Amino acid sequence: MQTRKHLRLLTLVIVVLMAATGCVPQTVAPAATEAPTQAAAATETTTTDSADVPVVKIGFVWPLTGNSATIGQQHSDGALMAIEEINANGGIKSMGGAKIEAVVYDSETSPDVGSSRVETLCTKDNVDIIVGCYNSAVTFPASEVAQRYSTPFISMGGVKNEITERGYEWVFRVNNKASYDVAEMLKGVDLCLQASPDTAAAVEADGGLTYALVYESTDWGSDNARIWKEEADKRGWTCVLDEPVTSGQSDMSAQAIKIKKANPDVINFSFYTNDAIVFTKALFANKINPRLGVWSVGGGSQDAAFYKACSPAEYEYSFVQEDWNVSMPYLYDWAAKISEDCYAKNGYYITSFFAQGWTAAKVAIAAIEAAGTNDKEAIRQALVNLDVKLEDCADSHIILTGYPEIKFDQDGQNTFSSGTIIQYQNGVQIGFSPLSAATPGYSPIIPIPDDFATRGSTSKPWGTAPEVK
Amino acid sequence: MLDSVLLALIYGILQGGAYGAIALGLSVIFGVTRVTNFAHGAMLMLSTFLYYELFTRFGIDPYIGILLVTPVLYLLGMATQKFLITPLLKKERGTTQDPASLLLITLGLGYAISNLFMMIYGSDYKTIPTAASRSYLTVEIGDFLFTTQWSRVIAFLAAFIIGFALWFIINKTELGKKIRAVSQNRDAAAICGVDVYKTYAVAFGLGIAAVAVAGACLSEYYFVQPQVGTLFGTKSFLIVVLGGLGSIPGAILGGLIFGIVESVGAQFITSSASSMLTFILFMIMLFIRPSGLLGKGGKV
Amino acid sequence: MNTKEHSNFFQGKVFAILGLLILLIVPNFVDTNVQIVFILILFYALCASCWNIVCGFVGELSLGHAVFLGVGAYISSLLLMDCSLSPWIGMFIAAAITAVFGVIVGLPCFRLHGPYFALTTIALGELIRIFVENNETVFGINLRGAMGLVLKQSGNQFIAFEFANKITYYYVLVALVAVTILVTWLIKNSKLGFYLTAIKSDPDAAESLGIKLTKYKLIAMGISCFLISFAGTFYAQYFRYVGPSRIFSHDMSVQIALIALVGGQGTVFGPLMGACLLVPITEFLSEEFGGTLPGLHLFIYGIVMILVVLYMPRGIFHPVTKLFKSIEAKLFSFGKKSVQKGEK
Amino acid sequence: MGEIIRLEHVSKKFGGLVAVDDFSGEIETGSIVGLIGPNGAGKTTLFNMMSCTYPPTSGKIFYKGVDVTKARTDTMAARGLARTFQVTKPFGDMTVVENFMVGAFLHTKDRATARKQAEEIYDYIGMSCGRDKPANETTTVDRKKLEIGRALATKPELLLLDEVMAGCNPQEKLELVETCRKIQKCGITLVVIEHDIKTIMTLCEKIVILHRGAKLTEGTPEQVANDPRAISAYLGEDYHAGC
What we know:
The structure holds 4 protein chains of 4 kinds.
Chain B: H1 2-33, H2 40-58, H3 62-92, H4 99-121, H5 131-134, E1 136-141, E2 144-149, H6 150-172, H7 174-184, H8 186-191, H9 196-219, H10 228-243, H11 248-268, H12 271-288
Antiparallel strand pairs in B: 1-2
Helix pairs in contact in B: 1-6, 1-9, 1-10, 1-11, 2-3, 2-4, 2-9, 2-10, 3-9, 6-7, 6-9, 7-9, 10-11, 10-12, 11-12
Chain C: H1 2-10, H2 14-25, H3 32-58, H4 66-83, H5 87-109, H6 114-134, E1 137-138, E2 141-142, E3 149-150, H7 166-188, H8 191-201, H9 203-208, H10 213-239, E4 241-242, H11 244-247, H12 250-263, H13 270-289, H14 296-311, H15 317-343
Antiparallel strand pairs in C: 1-2, 3-4
Helix pairs in contact in C: 3-7, 3-10, 3-12, 3-13, 4-5, 4-10, 5-10, 7-10, 8-10, 12-13, 13-14
Chain D: E1 3-14, E2 17-28, E3 32-36, H1 43-50, E4 58-63, E5 66-67, H2 73-79, E6 81-83, H3 96-104, H4 111-124, H5 140-153, E7 158-162, H6 170-185, E8 189-193, H7 197-203, E9 206-211, E10 214-219, H8 221-226, H9 228-242
Parallel strand pairs in D: 3-8, 3-9, 6-7, 7-8
Antiparallel strand pairs in D: 1-2, 1-4, 4-5, 9-10
């Protein structure tokens, strides 16, 4: 009797809890849970009037839980908004206005779950094309599954070189390889040295450039550090600190002290959002001021959450390798409009993650549009033949990431993918490399001034557009 | 070299104090009820979300929010003991003890709470930008620069305040007498007219209330996110075992050692190797002296 | 006479046999995506059964068993990658090494009990994860650090443990699970099983009866690690990628332990039953809501854990078999009548 | 016959507390010896040292002429020493017969043999609760018998019984006394801790009285009963009155 009472009570509690979680997202926390409702909306709108129009399915696998969840969420936001735009404008024209249905799965940041989800997409949902999975470790086995099922797979986010170096004809990558990322940053450092001959001379006088690598110790961070080291060795730079850090630190003062002691000219760090926040704060607090700046390979420091958590003073003058052309909203009206829409919907202006998600989805759609059929081989062919230039995107809005062109090489790698090296100046992202993405009228501030007392006092809030000079 | 080690030591001590503050509640709960509360981290996370809500909705600083959140968490702790753990203890009495079930139920509770918050709030990193988190304590003597957020200093001090408060309640009050009696011998206490299960619930509530106070300190300098709990939960366990399960000064001492090892260790080896060092230290400690540094001994 | 014995044998087992037949036959006739779920069920059943051999029988809660899964996966994969050794042979070498490793690890760990044991295993798991993530080479063996091991496709060769269709993987798993369950059954009905159960119930009494506690715990540990290493090899070959951040993860360990505990620790078929219950639920929830409500499936996981501990502290195995037996008894009496009628 | 176990100047200290103080004595093979004394006299401590649960602080223990002072508990069972526990420790997850089987497995690996021996023991010690009853559902007296049976299953030569009759009614005590006699007849030496003086007087051939960790006196029941030290220290006037 007693037990039964308990059981009833517990069931009630669970039901209430579940009901609560069902309602809460819409009412309590709009910003954080916009995506779920959005995803539901996307699916609903496409299924309601699918009676006579054919449906095209695109599968997405993002990390929606785990360390990189905020990033996966932004990827997902971008992709779903892109699909929404197409659906609102009459769907896929070559297929008689076919609507696009998005199937979104959570990879849980785990390789086995991710590849199982891709397998589900291939078999149960029978999607026409798959986009995913941000984490290289997940993308790796997941893209192999797509290859096995002869389903086109567009890798977005994963930078590990080998993803497109395995000879898989079904795997395409729109974004950069890790080696591109590093090459861009090193080129950025070179540019800085050129911009300030005095600093270059001082560096030379001190026995050549020194750098410190600080990175999260799972695959992405250590891969980035490894490539940086290889490339920097070629230039004769000296590594004064190679510091892997286990993810999830609540204080990085110890690392800051270590860096201070090593006194490098350049700091390169790669952290996911949580560690990036803690690290940036620790650097600022300890007044660490390498003369060639703090360079982040992206990850956490491209995340909107990072900028909510850090004050402008803390990231002032830091360099970020953004995986998109940050000047897009200033260069193109359509991009500016998307950015506004994104802010209205998700509470943040477009980030590189959003743009990447968007672009990947758009590339998938463009391929289907070109193929004009659900046939996977035709879609693959369309991807192989795909050649979109940024100038031509005024109507199609494909390359929100601002790559000059998207065209896959024989490995399926988009060789035109490039990011932007930006520096925060007065709280504003100033692009300066490559030239196509440079913010007109600005140059990098080198050497980094030692103005900790006043730093950030006049900074504009994050997301402010630079005044074009 | 010495400079940086000294600095690292200071940072380590500060950080260790914060670890200790979080671990204290866990230690009290184990000391009295013998329950290893795997939901500890989740409870910590839950409290930080309450502070976050209070701050964003009503502008209440977490330090003041303690007054509101701690009673709520105290009740939550009591409820946990009453509805989840006491039924198990009653069931196990007399028959063979099943040590797994207590671990399992708290583990399940932890999973449920942290994922419930994941569902409600998503995995976004939120911060509470209060005055204490934005102002820095700085000591600068020539090249020697020590600087840290005031909120970290407060978290360090909080460890001793919470520790003292718990010590006072347990050792100097009528309620504490009951708690001590129950923790020493529950059957004997029961014979003397102490309501054992009620006392357990009170002790559990106290432990959770303590973690709520630590949560306020944490939310002032760290972020609010559903997975924060897992991070500190595991660490708290290692700290508490290192210091001696059930010992209040032991929890603080364990926290300090952890903080120092992590911070100073990182000056000599890589940071990830120094986080391995804490695990190794923990395991060596267990094998040499399973009752922990300040534990009362006895069989484990 | 013969038939009577048969009816005795089947009595009370109709549903169990039915269930096993479903597991054996049904995957042949379902879509690939359902086959995936079946494979995951058996994979976790395998891991949980191995966990059960040491932890279920001895009564200690290991929350670091993924370590042995990972060690098995790593060794067989490294043998394949660096020495081109077929996984079929490599898995036995891996199993032997994992067993030795398990015994070495178990030696100090089994001196501890209850929460201390559980926490040590957690610490051990984390330690190994961080260690592998941060070390490219260990003793001259290239572990590839955090990158993990990537197994190249070999073109669906049997010798390379790579198959074109899921069903073959499935039957490999069926064989592995069958062996594990058989071993569990043999242990349970042997001196070892009696001794382990005795140790679990009361170590002092067990010792007074001449049972060498550490010896038998370590034997169980060795067997458990030997078998879970097979699961590791399977994981590596099936997903063709072994990443340290996942395979050594605390989540993986907890999942393994959980399935066994929910199923019924110390029982032969409990872990399988636990996997049959939990894996489909989580797979379904994670598939349906993973994109829209991440975390739901783990939330349900937590709730199921709490409910099982509160209402079925010994796992679902006994209540479920009881339920099925009572249903069967009703059906059986009906069946008996019809048989008698048939005889007339 | 010779002695089966001999203790030489054995002492045990727990921190500052002296539980057993310089105890010497031996037990003859085939006898039944009673060990009595007030609570806290060190009886169970003595048992624990004889069964090597923990070693004595000082002194030596010889079992069948071999120094076993530092031996491990589990090896003692193999040498033929078995014991029961004051607080019964049944293997609750198993049935009664399975409990016995655990003991029987000491000398066999074969399950069927163990089962056969276990069933013989079940009959031998006269249990009636049912062979396949779960051990944690048995009554007090059955648990006591279960302890004895499980110890017997290891085929001991020396059996230490720690208060097996506590908590039993007079009828049950009689049964247990009979069981003990039966066991002795099989050539097994018995050492019995008991509080019930009457029972122990009827059962034992020799009685040792412990008082505050030290041996107060020893001898046949008559000798002990008439020993003034024993009477004043432990038995009191009641015993005479009872006679």
